[in-house]
Design goal:
Layout (H helix, E strand, L loop, with lengths): L8 E5 L2 E4 H21 L10 H21 L7 H16 L13 H23 L1 H6 L9 H36 L5 H31 L1 H9 L2
Antiparallel strand pairs: 1-2
Helix pairs in contact: 1-3, 2-7, 3-7, 4-6, 4-7, 6-7
Length: 230
């Protein structure tokens, strides 16, 4: 049993390795690109449209509503980033129904990369909303002595975000494999259904936390402005 898809080496030439994490990550990205192209190539504004366009609109509208509820802002700026996070993680986890597939989200390198994306996106959106000076001033409030603690807080929550996703996906995969090995005729369908549910929940949690961090960075100046007014 492999703890992480990083350990499944599919091809190697000297120090260069091609492991399951890389293959399945690129496979998921290719699938998302292909599906997006197929669904959007014939978009229609008519009353009747394809079921795939209907599904796409439901997903996009649902993600937009969640962003609006969490961020209290127009979701259009954040929808591409947060929506991509959700769809990538969700599809990566859903594909466990395929034989031989190992979710790349069960690799710490993948979840760390997703966490770094959030780490970079938070100050980018914060600076776009507030300006560089106003955003960076938060790190030295209420005193410049808080600078190292605020930086450590940013890094630690990114690490927690990556470890949470990695731990939940990896442990779920291992537990499912153990139970299926013990009772292969009783639990496979149940474990697959449970794995799909957990995978979707983890995608939702990751996307929501990413939006919470972004909202905290972009709404800080509004909160301060309200507190300053009598």
């Amino acid at each position: 049993m492999h703890i992480t898809p990083d350990m499944v080496v599919l091809w190697q030439w000297g120090p260069v390795q091609l492991n399951a994490t890389i293959v399945f990550t690129w496979g998921v990205m290719a699938l998302l690109v292909l599906a997006s192209w197929l669904v959007t190539r014939r978009l229609s504004a008519e009353v009747r449209f394809s079921r795939w366009q209907n599904l796409l609109e439901v997903v996009v509208a649902g993600i937009g509503d969640q962003i609006r509820e969490i961020g209290q802002q127009d979701p259009r700026r954040y929808l591409p980033f947060v929506g991509t996070l959700f769809l990538f993680i969700a599809v990566s986890n859903i594909l466990i129904v395929l034989p031989g597939y190992v979710p790349p989200t069960g690799s710490l390198s993948t979840t760390a990369a997703l966490g770094i994306c959030v780490l970079v996106a938070v100050p980018v959106y914060g600076i776009l909303q507030q300006g560089a000076r106003a955003y960076l001033r938060q790190y030295v409030e209420p005193s410049v002595l808080m600078l190292p603690f605020n930086i450590m807080g940013e890094l630690s929550r990114t690490l927690a975000l990556a470890l949470r996703l990695f731990g939940n996906v990896m442990s779920g995969t291992m537990i499912g494999a153990i139970i299926v090995a013990i009772a292969p005729l009783v639990f496979p369908l149940l474990m697959q259904a449970l794995g799909l549910l957990i995978g979707l929940i983890q995608a939702y949690i990751f996307a929501v936390l990413a939006m919470v961090y972004i909202a905290a960075a972009t709404l800080a100046h509004k909160t301060k402005g309200k507190n300053a007014n009598p």
